[in-house]
Structures are given as C-alpha cells and as structure tokens.
Design brief:
Layout lengths: L4 E6 L1 H5 L3 H10 L3 E8 L3 H7 L9 H9 L3 E7 L3 H9 L12 H5 L8 E3 L3 H11 L7
Antiparallel strand pairs: 1-3, 1-4, 2-3
Bound molecules: ribavirin triphosphate (RTP) and magnesium ion.
Family: Belongs to the NDK family.
Subunit structure: Homotetramer.
Protein name: Nucleoside diphosphate kinase
C-alpha cells in the first residue's frame, strides 16, 4: 500500500441518517480520490478484530454493538498525505471538540457515534484496507 492512501468507514449512524452522499461529496471536494468502495456490514467477529486495539477499553462492547448494527460504507482514499489530511477533514473523535466544517462536526452525534472512521497511520491504513478489500477491488 502506497503511503498516499487511507482507509475510511462511514459508520452505521451516518448510513442510517442518509448522509452517505453528503459525506462522499465532502470527501471528493477535499481532493481525495476513491480507489475502493462498498456497502457492507461487519459481523461481531469482524468488529472485535478491527478494533482489537481497544479491547480493554470500557467502551469496547458498545463500540462493537454500534459498528455491527447496520451497514457501513468502507472505502480506500488516495491523496498526498492522505492519513493526516483525512484525520484533519473528519475532526476530533468527540464532535463537541471537532473544528467547524469537519465531517464529525457536521454529521456526528457523540463521541461514541461519530459518523466516520479514518486510519491513524500508514501502517494501519494498509492493514485496514486489506481487512475489507482484495487487491482486485482497489484501483
Ligand atoms: P476511529 O478509529 O473510528 O477513526 O476513531 P478515532 O481514531 O477518532 O478514535 P479511537 O480512539 O480510535 O476510538 C475508536 C472509536 O471508538 C468509539 N469511542 N467511544 N464512548 C467513548 O468514550 C468512546 N471513545 C471512543 C468511537 O466510535 C471512536 O471513533
Ligand atoms: Mg482510531
């Protein structure tokens, strides 16, 4: 995986509220090219594995329940400095702390239901992209 790619999920709350189009529009307008994308639903095992780093945190069970309760949009995005620039575009984990104009400020409800995921490193972007997509599904 090149270092100019990141992985994102539009989380179940964003899909439930009909925000897929608006969020993808904002992502595209911010200069990210979609190189892979699908609507999918994670199983409990999938979510436990994807968020394994948080398995000892008090919110882990709620996080797994939330991330599996409905479909998500999984996507791989390409742009110079993709990981850092996408984290800036989505804003702080808690939308109350997120900057004006960020995706979480615009579309998220709370620290636990915060509309969108963004990889936090190039290494995790590659791992998370491979978790959801085969090489033939990335363009
Ligand atoms: P993400 O991994 O989804 O992009 O979010 P993040 O880096 O901004 O935040 P992280 O610390 O990795 O937390 C992962 C997700 O767990 C939920 N969370 N709930 N109730 C809480 O205190 C709490 N803290 C985190 C959120 O869905 C968060 O995005
Ligand atoms: Mg994270």
């Amino acid at each position: 995986m090149a270092t100019n790619r990141t992985f994102t999920m539009l989380k179940p709350d964003a899909v439930e509220k009909g925000h897929i189009g608006a969020i993808l529009e904002k992502i595209s307008a911010s200069g990210f090219r979609i190189v892979a994308m699908k609507l999918t639903q994670m199983t409990t095992k999938d979510a436990q594995a994807f968020y394994a780093i948080h398995s000892e945190r008090p919110f882990f069970a709620d996080l797994v329940e939330y991330m599996t309760r409905g479909p998500i949009v999984a996507a791989v995005l390409e742009k110079d400095n993709a990981v850092e620039d996408f984290r800036t575009l989505i804003g702080a984990t808690n939308p109350a702390d997120a900057a004006e104009g960020t995706i979480r400020k615009m579309f998220a409800e709370s620290i636990s239901e915060n509309a969108v995921h963004g990889s936090d490193s190039d290494e995790n972007a590659a791992i998370e992209s491979a978790f959801h997509f085969s090489g033939r599904e990335m363009f």
